[in-house]
Amino acid sequence: MSKDFAYEKQKILPIKKQYEVMDMSTKYRLDNILPELMKREGLDMWIILAREYNEDPVFFTLIPGIVRTASRLSCIVFYLRPDNQLESLALCGTNPHLAKFYNQSWNSKSETQWQCIKRIVEERDPNRIGINVSDQFALADGLTKRLHDKLISTLGEEYSKRLVSAEKLCVGWLERRSLPELELYPQIYKVACDIIHEAFSNQVIKPGVTTTQDVEWWIMEKIKDLGLEFWFTPTIDLQRQGVKEKRIMNTVILHGDILHCDVGITYMGLCTDTQKIAYVLKPEEERVPLGLETALKLCNQFQDIVTENFVAGRTGNEIMIASLAEANEQNIKAMLYTHPIGYHGHGAGPTIGLWGNQRQVPGRGDYPMYHDTCYALELNTTSTVPEWDNQEVCIFLEETIAFTKTGVSYLKDRQTKFITIG
After folding, report:
1. Which of 37, 172, 196, 288 is 20 to 30 A off residue 392, Cα-Cα?
2. How high is the pLDDT of residue 2?
3. Sign for the pseudo-dihedral over CA of 314, 318, 324, 329
4. What confidence score (pLDDT) does residue 155 get?
Protein backbone atom coordinates (compact mmCIF):
# COMPACT_ATOMS: atom_id res chain seq x y z
CA MET A 1 0.00 0.00 0.00
CA SER A 2 1.32 3.41 -0.93
CA LYS A 3 2.66 5.73 1.74
CA ASP A 4 0.71 8.50 0.01
CA PHE A 5 -2.46 7.38 1.76
CA ALA A 6 -2.79 7.69 5.52
CA TYR A 7 -5.41 5.13 6.53
CA GLU A 8 -3.08 2.12 6.81
CA LYS A 9 -4.68 -0.95 8.40
CA GLN A 10 -2.99 -0.22 11.69
CA LYS A 11 -4.57 3.25 11.78
CA ILE A 12 -8.02 1.67 12.08
CA LEU A 13 -8.69 0.99 15.75
CA PRO A 14 -8.87 -2.65 16.90
CA ILE A 15 -12.46 -3.81 17.34
CA LYS A 16 -12.12 -3.89 21.15
CA LYS A 17 -11.05 -0.24 21.16
CA GLN A 18 -13.81 0.66 18.72
CA TYR A 19 -16.40 -0.82 21.07
CA GLU A 20 -14.88 1.03 24.01
CA VAL A 21 -15.13 4.33 22.14
CA MET A 22 -18.70 3.60 21.03
CA ASP A 23 -19.77 2.59 24.55
CA MET A 24 -18.25 5.70 26.13
CA SER A 25 -20.14 7.75 23.58
CA THR A 26 -23.45 5.98 24.26
CA LYS A 27 -23.06 6.35 28.04
CA TYR A 28 -22.28 10.06 27.63
CA ARG A 29 -25.36 10.51 25.43
CA LEU A 30 -27.65 8.66 27.83
CA ASP A 31 -26.43 10.76 30.75
CA ASN A 32 -26.27 14.15 29.06
CA ILE A 33 -28.53 14.23 25.99
CA LEU A 34 -31.49 11.92 26.57
CA PRO A 35 -32.84 13.65 29.75
CA GLU A 36 -32.79 16.99 27.94
CA LEU A 37 -34.61 15.58 24.91
CA MET A 38 -37.27 13.84 27.00
CA LYS A 39 -37.91 17.08 28.84
CA ARG A 40 -38.01 19.03 25.55
CA GLU A 41 -40.61 16.66 24.12
CA GLY A 42 -42.63 16.43 27.34
CA LEU A 43 -42.25 12.68 27.86
CA ASP A 44 -42.06 11.13 31.32
CA MET A 45 -41.32 7.63 30.07
CA TRP A 46 -39.99 6.04 26.89
CA ILE A 47 -40.53 2.34 26.20
CA ILE A 48 -38.50 0.56 23.50
CA LEU A 49 -39.50 -3.00 22.62
CA ALA A 50 -37.47 -5.12 20.20
CA ARG A 51 -37.70 -8.69 19.01
CA GLU A 52 -34.62 -10.65 18.03
CA TYR A 53 -33.82 -10.15 14.30
CA ASN A 54 -36.67 -7.67 13.89
CA GLU A 55 -35.30 -4.89 16.04
CA ASP A 56 -36.49 -1.32 16.30
CA PRO A 57 -33.72 0.72 14.57
CA VAL A 58 -33.44 2.98 17.61
CA PHE A 59 -32.69 -0.06 19.79
CA PHE A 60 -29.23 -0.48 18.26
CA THR A 61 -28.28 3.08 19.25
CA LEU A 62 -29.07 2.40 22.91
CA ILE A 63 -27.04 -0.75 23.52
CA PRO A 64 -23.32 -1.57 23.85
CA GLY A 65 -21.48 -2.09 20.59
CA ILE A 66 -20.78 -5.74 21.29
CA VAL A 67 -24.49 -6.56 21.65
CA ARG A 68 -25.54 -7.55 18.15
CA THR A 69 -29.25 -8.34 18.52
CA ALA A 70 -32.17 -8.21 20.89
CA SER A 71 -32.45 -11.27 23.10
CA ARG A 72 -35.78 -12.96 22.34
CA LEU A 73 -37.78 -9.91 23.46
CA SER A 74 -35.76 -6.99 24.77
CA CYS A 75 -37.32 -4.07 26.58
CA ILE A 76 -35.62 -0.85 27.62
CA VAL A 77 -37.46 1.75 29.68
CA PHE A 78 -36.39 5.29 30.46
CA TYR A 79 -38.18 7.26 33.17
CA LEU A 80 -37.53 10.95 33.75
CA ARG A 81 -38.26 11.51 37.42
CA PRO A 82 -39.78 14.75 38.71
CA ASP A 83 -36.28 15.81 39.86
CA ASN A 84 -35.12 15.40 36.20
CA GLN A 85 -32.97 12.40 37.06
CA LEU A 86 -33.15 9.66 34.46
CA GLU A 87 -33.79 6.03 35.33
CA SER A 88 -32.48 3.61 32.69
CA LEU A 89 -33.98 0.16 33.08
CA ALA A 90 -33.43 -3.13 31.23
CA LEU A 91 -36.49 -5.37 31.37
CA CYS A 92 -34.83 -8.27 29.57
CA GLY A 93 -32.96 -11.44 30.28
CA THR A 94 -29.77 -10.88 32.26
CA ASN A 95 -26.99 -9.50 30.07
CA PRO A 96 -23.73 -8.33 31.68
CA HIS A 97 -23.06 -5.98 28.76
CA LEU A 98 -26.34 -4.11 29.27
CA ALA A 99 -25.37 -3.59 32.91
CA LYS A 100 -22.94 -0.91 31.72
CA PHE A 101 -25.89 1.35 30.98
CA TYR A 102 -29.00 -0.12 32.59
CA ASN A 103 -30.33 -1.38 35.89
CA GLN A 104 -31.57 -4.95 35.47
CA SER A 105 -35.21 -4.70 36.59
CA TRP A 106 -36.80 -8.02 35.64
CA ASN A 107 -36.56 -11.09 37.82
CA SER A 108 -37.79 -13.91 35.61
CA LYS A 109 -38.29 -16.16 38.63
CA SER A 110 -40.97 -13.97 40.20
CA GLU A 111 -42.86 -12.50 37.22
CA THR A 112 -43.24 -12.67 33.47
CA GLN A 113 -41.60 -10.04 31.30
CA TRP A 114 -44.94 -8.40 30.49
CA GLN A 115 -45.92 -8.39 34.18
CA CYS A 116 -42.64 -6.61 34.85
CA ILE A 117 -43.38 -3.96 32.21
CA LYS A 118 -46.80 -3.34 33.75
CA ARG A 119 -45.34 -3.13 37.26
CA ILE A 120 -42.64 -0.64 36.22
CA VAL A 121 -45.26 1.61 34.60
CA GLU A 122 -47.71 1.42 37.50
CA GLU A 123 -45.02 2.10 40.11
CA ARG A 124 -43.89 5.28 38.33
CA ASP A 125 -47.31 6.41 37.12
CA PRO A 126 -46.07 8.51 34.15
CA ASN A 127 -48.40 11.01 32.47
CA ARG A 128 -47.03 10.66 28.93
CA ILE A 129 -45.42 7.42 27.73
CA GLY A 130 -43.54 7.58 24.44
CA ILE A 131 -43.59 4.64 22.04
CA ASN A 132 -41.90 4.40 18.65
CA VAL A 133 -44.73 4.91 16.16
CA SER A 134 -44.56 7.49 13.39
CA ASP A 135 -46.26 8.40 10.12
CA GLN A 136 -43.37 10.48 8.77
CA PHE A 137 -40.06 9.01 9.95
CA ALA A 138 -39.34 5.33 9.31
CA LEU A 139 -36.55 5.34 11.90
CA ALA A 140 -39.09 6.43 14.56
CA ASP A 141 -41.63 3.75 13.60
CA GLY A 142 -39.89 0.67 14.97
CA LEU A 143 -42.61 -0.70 17.28
CA THR A 144 -44.23 -3.62 15.50
CA LYS A 145 -48.01 -4.07 15.36
CA ARG A 146 -47.89 -7.26 17.43
CA LEU A 147 -45.83 -5.67 20.22
CA HIS A 148 -47.98 -2.53 20.13
CA ASP A 149 -51.13 -4.61 20.64
CA LYS A 150 -49.53 -6.63 23.42
CA LEU A 151 -48.35 -3.49 25.21
CA ILE A 152 -51.86 -2.01 25.14
CA SER A 153 -53.47 -5.19 26.46
CA THR A 154 -50.80 -5.43 29.17
CA LEU A 155 -51.08 -1.85 30.42
CA GLY A 156 -54.86 -1.74 30.38
CA GLU A 157 -57.17 1.09 29.46
CA GLU A 158 -55.95 3.73 31.92
CA TYR A 159 -52.26 3.63 31.00
CA SER A 160 -52.83 2.87 27.34
CA LYS A 161 -54.51 6.27 27.06
CA ARG A 162 -51.19 7.79 28.08
CA LEU A 163 -49.26 6.24 25.19
CA VAL A 164 -48.13 8.87 22.66
CA SER A 165 -45.83 8.90 19.65
CA ALA A 166 -42.17 9.35 20.55
CA GLU A 167 -41.46 10.48 16.98
CA LYS A 168 -39.74 13.76 17.86
CA LEU A 169 -37.80 12.13 20.69
CA CYS A 170 -36.56 9.39 18.34
CA VAL A 171 -35.53 11.92 15.71
CA GLY A 172 -33.89 14.15 18.31
CA TRP A 173 -31.97 11.22 19.78
CA LEU A 174 -30.80 9.96 16.40
CA GLU A 175 -29.82 13.34 14.96
CA ARG A 176 -28.12 14.90 17.98
CA ARG A 177 -24.36 14.52 18.10
CA SER A 178 -22.52 14.80 21.39
CA LEU A 179 -19.31 16.76 21.82
CA PRO A 180 -17.21 13.54 21.86
CA GLU A 181 -18.89 12.44 18.61
CA LEU A 182 -18.27 15.80 16.95
CA GLU A 183 -14.60 15.47 17.89
CA LEU A 184 -14.48 11.88 16.57
CA TYR A 185 -16.38 12.41 13.32
CA PRO A 186 -13.58 14.17 11.37
CA GLN A 187 -11.30 11.16 11.96
CA ILE A 188 -13.97 8.86 10.55
CA TYR A 189 -14.56 11.12 7.58
CA LYS A 190 -10.85 11.29 6.82
CA VAL A 191 -10.79 7.52 6.37
CA ALA A 192 -13.58 7.74 3.79
CA CYS A 193 -11.84 10.57 1.92
CA ASP A 194 -8.51 8.73 1.89
CA ILE A 195 -10.18 5.71 0.31
CA ILE A 196 -11.63 7.91 -2.43
CA HIS A 197 -8.33 9.65 -3.11
CA GLU A 198 -6.54 6.35 -3.57
CA ALA A 199 -9.34 5.04 -5.79
CA PHE A 200 -8.96 8.18 -7.93
CA SER A 201 -5.26 7.67 -8.54
CA ASN A 202 -2.89 6.04 -11.03
CA GLN A 203 -2.48 3.17 -8.58
CA VAL A 204 -6.03 2.06 -9.32
CA ILE A 205 -6.99 3.64 -12.65
CA LYS A 206 -5.25 2.93 -15.98
CA PRO A 207 -7.02 4.98 -18.68
CA GLY A 208 -8.21 2.82 -21.55
CA VAL A 209 -8.10 -0.30 -19.38
CA THR A 210 -9.84 0.26 -16.06
CA THR A 211 -13.65 0.31 -16.00
CA THR A 212 -15.95 2.18 -13.66
CA GLN A 213 -17.02 -1.21 -12.25
CA ASP A 214 -13.36 -2.08 -11.53
CA VAL A 215 -13.09 1.02 -9.34
CA GLU A 216 -16.36 0.23 -7.57
CA TRP A 217 -15.12 -3.27 -6.71
CA TRP A 218 -11.75 -1.87 -5.62
CA ILE A 219 -13.47 0.51 -3.20
CA MET A 220 -15.62 -2.27 -1.76
CA GLU A 221 -12.58 -4.51 -1.26
CA LYS A 222 -10.63 -1.67 0.33
CA ILE A 223 -13.41 -0.91 2.82
CA LYS A 224 -13.70 -4.59 3.73
CA ASP A 225 -9.91 -4.98 4.01
CA LEU A 226 -9.93 -2.17 6.55
CA GLY A 227 -12.53 -4.04 8.61
CA LEU A 228 -15.21 -1.45 7.90
CA GLU A 229 -18.63 -1.52 6.25
CA PHE A 230 -20.15 0.34 3.32
CA TRP A 231 -23.77 1.24 4.10
CA PHE A 232 -24.64 1.46 0.42
CA THR A 233 -22.96 0.07 -2.68
CA PRO A 234 -20.31 2.55 -3.91
CA THR A 235 -20.85 3.94 -7.40
CA ILE A 236 -18.52 5.39 -10.03
CA ASP A 237 -19.76 7.21 -13.11
CA LEU A 238 -18.32 9.68 -15.58
CA GLN A 239 -18.99 12.48 -18.04
CA ARG A 240 -17.30 12.64 -21.40
CA GLN A 241 -16.84 15.34 -24.01
CA GLY A 242 -19.27 14.80 -26.88
CA VAL A 243 -21.67 12.67 -24.81
CA LYS A 244 -24.67 14.44 -23.27
CA GLU A 245 -25.39 11.82 -20.61
CA LYS A 246 -24.50 13.17 -17.16
CA ARG A 247 -23.79 9.85 -15.44
CA ILE A 248 -22.24 7.26 -17.74
CA MET A 249 -21.76 3.95 -15.93
CA ASN A 250 -20.37 0.51 -16.72
CA THR A 251 -17.75 1.74 -19.16
CA VAL A 252 -13.98 2.00 -19.69
CA ILE A 253 -12.39 5.14 -18.28
CA LEU A 254 -10.60 7.29 -20.87
CA HIS A 255 -8.31 10.31 -20.87
CA GLY A 256 -10.34 13.53 -20.67
CA ASP A 257 -13.16 11.99 -18.59
CA ILE A 258 -14.69 13.56 -15.48
CA LEU A 259 -15.08 10.88 -12.81
CA HIS A 260 -17.65 11.04 -10.03
CA CYS A 261 -17.98 8.77 -7.01
CA ASP A 262 -20.55 8.23 -4.28
CA VAL A 263 -19.12 6.40 -1.25
CA GLY A 264 -20.34 5.90 2.31
CA ILE A 265 -18.69 3.97 5.13
CA THR A 266 -19.71 3.07 8.67
CA TYR A 267 -16.99 3.25 11.31
CA MET A 268 -17.47 3.26 15.08
CA GLY A 269 -21.20 3.56 14.67
CA LEU A 270 -21.23 6.68 12.49
CA CYS A 271 -21.81 6.96 8.74
CA THR A 272 -20.18 9.10 6.08
CA ASP A 273 -21.55 10.04 2.67
CA THR A 274 -19.18 11.57 0.13
CA GLN A 275 -19.22 12.49 -3.53
CA LYS A 276 -16.06 13.79 -5.14
CA ILE A 277 -14.97 14.42 -8.71
CA ALA A 278 -11.75 13.76 -10.60
CA TYR A 279 -10.37 14.53 -14.04
CA VAL A 280 -8.32 12.13 -16.14
CA LEU A 281 -5.67 14.29 -17.79
CA LYS A 282 -5.04 13.87 -21.49
CA PRO A 283 -1.42 13.02 -22.35
CA GLU A 284 -0.75 16.58 -23.51
CA GLU A 285 -2.47 18.23 -20.51
CA GLU A 286 -0.77 19.42 -17.34
CA ARG A 287 -3.86 20.84 -15.66
CA VAL A 288 -7.64 20.63 -15.65
CA PRO A 289 -9.35 22.75 -18.33
CA LEU A 290 -10.26 26.19 -16.95
CA GLY A 291 -13.94 25.75 -17.83
CA LEU A 292 -14.17 22.70 -15.58
CA GLU A 293 -12.40 24.48 -12.73
CA THR A 294 -14.88 27.36 -13.10
CA ALA A 295 -17.78 24.89 -12.97
CA LEU A 296 -16.45 23.45 -9.71
CA LYS A 297 -16.12 26.93 -8.19
CA LEU A 298 -19.76 27.60 -9.08
CA CYS A 299 -20.79 24.45 -7.22
CA ASN A 300 -18.75 25.62 -4.22
CA GLN A 301 -20.65 28.91 -4.45
CA PHE A 302 -23.93 27.02 -4.21
CA GLN A 303 -22.60 25.10 -1.19
CA ASP A 304 -22.01 28.46 0.48
CA ILE A 305 -25.55 29.58 -0.34
CA VAL A 306 -27.00 26.45 1.24
CA THR A 307 -24.90 26.50 4.40
CA GLU A 308 -25.62 30.20 4.93
CA ASN A 309 -29.28 29.23 5.08
CA PHE A 310 -28.61 26.72 7.86
CA VAL A 311 -30.34 28.45 10.77
CA ALA A 312 -31.61 26.72 13.91
CA GLY A 313 -35.39 26.60 13.89
CA ARG A 314 -35.74 26.76 10.12
CA THR A 315 -37.36 23.77 8.50
CA GLY A 316 -35.82 21.70 5.75
CA ASN A 317 -38.38 23.09 3.33
CA GLU A 318 -37.55 26.68 4.24
CA ILE A 319 -33.83 26.07 3.75
CA MET A 320 -34.40 24.39 0.39
CA ILE A 321 -36.72 27.09 -0.99
CA ALA A 322 -34.46 29.93 0.16
CA SER A 323 -31.31 28.26 -1.21
CA LEU A 324 -32.75 27.52 -4.63
CA ALA A 325 -34.19 31.04 -4.88
CA GLU A 326 -30.79 32.59 -4.13
CA ALA A 327 -29.12 30.27 -6.64
CA ASN A 328 -31.62 31.35 -9.28
CA GLU A 329 -30.93 35.03 -8.52
CA GLN A 330 -27.22 34.34 -9.08
CA ASN A 331 -27.93 32.46 -12.32
CA ILE A 332 -26.81 29.15 -10.87
CA LYS A 333 -28.57 26.10 -12.28
CA ALA A 334 -28.74 23.97 -9.15
CA MET A 335 -30.36 20.98 -7.46
CA LEU A 336 -30.43 20.42 -3.69
CA TYR A 337 -31.04 17.11 -1.90
CA THR A 338 -29.22 17.34 1.42
CA HIS A 339 -30.02 14.89 4.22
CA PRO A 340 -29.17 14.29 7.89
CA ILE A 341 -26.49 11.73 8.68
CA GLY A 342 -25.20 10.02 11.80
CA TYR A 343 -26.08 6.54 13.03
CA HIS A 344 -27.75 6.05 9.65
CA GLY A 345 -26.56 7.28 6.27
CA HIS A 346 -29.97 8.68 5.40
CA GLY A 347 -30.56 9.82 8.94
CA ALA A 348 -33.47 11.19 10.89
CA GLY A 349 -34.02 14.95 10.78
CA PRO A 350 -35.12 17.60 8.29
CA THR A 351 -35.32 16.60 4.64
CA ILE A 352 -33.78 19.40 2.57
CA GLY A 353 -34.98 18.61 -0.94
CA LEU A 354 -35.09 15.30 -2.77
CA TRP A 355 -33.27 14.17 -5.92
CA GLY A 356 -36.51 13.51 -7.74
CA ASN A 357 -38.53 16.27 -6.12
CA GLN A 358 -37.20 19.83 -6.00
CA ARG A 359 -40.32 21.00 -4.20
CA GLN A 360 -41.34 21.15 -0.56
CA VAL A 361 -41.61 17.77 1.16
CA PRO A 362 -44.59 17.61 3.55
CA GLY A 363 -43.88 16.17 6.98
CA ARG A 364 -40.18 15.34 6.95
CA GLY A 365 -39.35 18.62 5.23
CA ASP A 366 -41.31 20.52 7.90
CA TYR A 367 -39.05 19.28 10.70
CA PRO A 368 -36.84 22.09 12.09
CA MET A 369 -33.07 22.20 12.21
CA TYR A 370 -31.34 21.89 15.58
CA HIS A 371 -27.76 22.58 16.62
CA ASP A 372 -25.24 19.76 17.11
CA THR A 373 -26.44 17.81 14.09
CA CYS A 374 -24.67 16.51 10.99
CA TYR A 375 -25.66 16.48 7.33
CA ALA A 376 -24.57 15.13 3.99
CA LEU A 377 -24.43 18.38 2.01
CA GLU A 378 -25.55 16.79 -1.25
CA LEU A 379 -26.22 18.90 -4.33
CA ASN A 380 -25.21 19.63 -7.90
CA THR A 381 -24.85 22.51 -10.36
CA THR A 382 -24.81 22.53 -14.15
CA SER A 383 -22.49 24.73 -16.24
CA THR A 384 -21.44 25.04 -19.87
CA VAL A 385 -17.76 24.37 -20.56
CA PRO A 386 -16.10 26.32 -23.41
CA GLU A 387 -13.36 23.72 -23.90
CA TRP A 388 -16.07 21.12 -24.46
CA ASP A 389 -17.82 23.16 -27.19
CA ASN A 390 -20.14 24.65 -24.54
CA GLN A 391 -21.38 21.21 -23.53
CA GLU A 392 -23.25 21.17 -20.24
CA VAL A 393 -21.36 19.52 -17.38
CA CYS A 394 -22.88 18.61 -14.04
CA ILE A 395 -20.76 18.95 -10.90
CA PHE A 396 -21.96 16.52 -8.22
CA LEU A 397 -20.61 17.14 -4.71
CA GLU A 398 -21.41 15.75 -1.29
CA GLU A 399 -19.59 16.52 1.94
CA THR A 400 -20.38 15.47 5.51
CA ILE A 401 -20.73 18.61 7.64
CA ALA A 402 -21.58 19.56 11.22
CA PHE A 403 -24.02 22.29 12.31
CA THR A 404 -23.36 23.72 15.76
CA LYS A 405 -23.92 27.03 17.55
CA THR A 406 -20.77 28.33 15.87
CA GLY A 407 -22.19 27.57 12.42
CA VAL A 408 -21.39 25.01 9.73
CA SER A 409 -18.05 23.22 9.63
CA TYR A 410 -16.80 20.70 7.07
CA LEU A 411 -15.47 17.56 8.73
CA LYS A 412 -12.54 17.76 6.33
CA ASP A 413 -11.52 20.45 3.86
CA ARG A 414 -14.19 20.44 1.18
CA GLN A 415 -13.27 19.77 -2.42
CA THR A 416 -12.40 22.99 -4.28
CA LYS A 417 -10.13 21.46 -6.92
CA PHE A 418 -10.43 18.43 -9.16
CA ILE A 419 -8.54 15.32 -8.12
CA THR A 420 -6.28 14.69 -11.11
CA ILE A 421 -5.34 11.34 -12.60
CA GLY A 422 -2.62 11.30 -15.23
Report:
1. 196
2. 42
3. negative
4. 97
Residue 96 scores a pLDDT above 50: yes
Please enumerate in sequence order all residues whose Cβ is within 8 A of that of 291, keeping only pairs 6 or more positions apart, or say none.
383, 384, 385, 386, 387, 388, 393
CB 339 within 8 A of CB 262: no
Read off the pLDDT band of 356 (50, 70, 90). Answer: confident
Residue ranges and CATH numbers for the domains of the chain are 34-173 (3.40.350.10), 177-421 (3.90.230.10)
Amino acid letter for position 154: T
Question: Phi/psi class of residue 362: alpha, beta or left (left: φ > 0; alpha: ψ in -120 to 50)?
Answer: beta
Residue 170, burial from CB neighbour count under 10 angstroms (0-12, 13-18, 19+): buried
In this prediction, residue 279 has a pLDDT band, given cuts at 50, 70 and 90, of very high
Structural contact between residues 110 and 79, judged by C-beta atoms closer than 8 angstroms = no
**E strand or H helix that includes residue 394:** strand 391-404
Residue 193's contacts (CB-CB under 8 Å, 6 or more residues apart) are: 274, 276, 412
CB atoms within 10 A of CB 153: 11
How many residues appear in the chain? 422
Could you tell me what percentage of the chain is helix, strand and coil, using 3-state DSSP and rounding each to the nearest 5?
A: 35, 25, 40
Check residue 85 and report its DSSP letter. Answer: P
CB atoms within 10 A of CB 22: 18
